[in-house]
Structure prediction request, 528 residues.
Amino acid sequence: MILRRWWQILVVLSALVALGMTLVWVLGPGRGSAEALALAQRAAQALETVTIKGTVRTLALSPRGPVEARAEVHRGEGRVHIRYLSGPAEGMEVHRDGASVWSCGPEGAERHRAQIGDAGWSHELMRRNWQFRLRGEASVAGRPAALLTARGPGGRLAVAADRETGFPLLLKRSAPDGRTLSETVWETADFSVAPPPQVEPPADTQVAERSRRRRVPVEEAQQAVDFTLLAPARLPSGFALDGWFVRERRRGVVVEARYTDGLRPLLVIEQSARAAAAEPDGPERPDRVAREGQRRGPGDGPPADGPARQPGHMHDRPMMGGRGMHHGPMMHMRGAGGRAVRREIDGVLVTVIGPDLGEALTDVLESMEPVQVQ
Amino acid sequence: MDCSVVRDKLAEYQLGGLEQDERAAVAAHLSGCAACRAELEALSRLDALLPAMEPLTAPAELWAGIEARLQPRRNPWWQWAAQWPRPALAAAAMFMIAVGLWVGLRGPAPIVPTETLAPAYQEQQIVAEWSSPLADDAALGVMFASLQGVETEQ
Prediction:
């Protein structure tokens, strides 16, 4: 009898140990996490330093749905030349040189240009928020590669890093719900080529100094605008402030507060609602959106560019927010590989753009409070 | 009809349980098959012996032993619920409360946006993604090149 009791205790203890080991395996830092993190950091570095030329197959989740394309890519010494062979950008070229990026049409005419600006890269956030794991070996473009994955607040990431150079021959990003946001796989890769030549954008379309995004202290960002800056009191888990940026546009200054979880950004963009309404490229202008929202009633059929409006898509009536602030209707929008929510708060048009984190983006917008600048 | 089929039917043949055509077929086979006739005779002898045997009475403890080894019969759950109505009602109420809490705490259905972010803002998002480590140039590039209506910065 006593032996039987001891046997039962032993079985229960064994089951508990097995359960604990399973939990550690599933939830813990995982096998080879330090090595995987080092490989990911090496892969990020290789994107800037390694010279490579080849063809890639890429997939991206645009606001209008997934798009696929094949492209010739030549990169090295901080420059990237991409020529699209198929897909919606077929015949177009995208050039990146350091912090500047521009696209050219098939006839060489520039479409538009943007300034990437200096990026905040927090190794600490990347290490703290993302759980890296080694998943084994893979062969990409005929080359052996280390396969690693990462799971973090902004979703999932899979990387196949070339064993010799560390260059990521496969990059796949997924949303927290598992949907693929982007995927690029190198089909052919030649590491023995010379770096791409320097290509200057057409002289008549230089990015003017006033339109560049500048990283500034919050005090300077506050001085640049005629409204009180707002900042979220609540952020999605794992995200932290990267910095404040100012972008001077024709009709006023746009302030951008950038947050990151180490790999994915979350933007809070603020501008005067009056100036935003006057912008020519503002189909999302709050006055126009409000009219559209009223016009598209339940009996008016779906909007021209998508399915029927979902209940709760937009709060119809303005409301008074916390601390007596006047909150306009909230809009939910599809972004490039993510979501966006927007509302007017005390004359400031606030747009929150980030990964598809469900209600977390709405929560960010609902928690906006005036920034206390010294 | 071959021997194996006939022998399967011999017991019924002897007891008169076969249909007329089957009986005729078996009889025809027996008339020409000595082995099957011998089998039928053996059956007849056994049948004659049975009435002479005395019936045996099973020992009294036999059934008690069998009963002790039988598994208790499980009543279906609805019989248990009928026997114990209050605990059954309490369990049902707890189940309903748990389902209600689960549904309630899940919150409202996720909002599916139908509007598309304006190109100028999409560009800001793409540019921000581009400055992240491990940025996917080819994927970001195809979205960047596909942007329409972005104000050219001059």
Q: What stands out?
A: Chain B has a mean pLDDT of 82. DSSP finds eight helices and one strand in chain B. The first helix of chain B runs from residue 3 to 15.
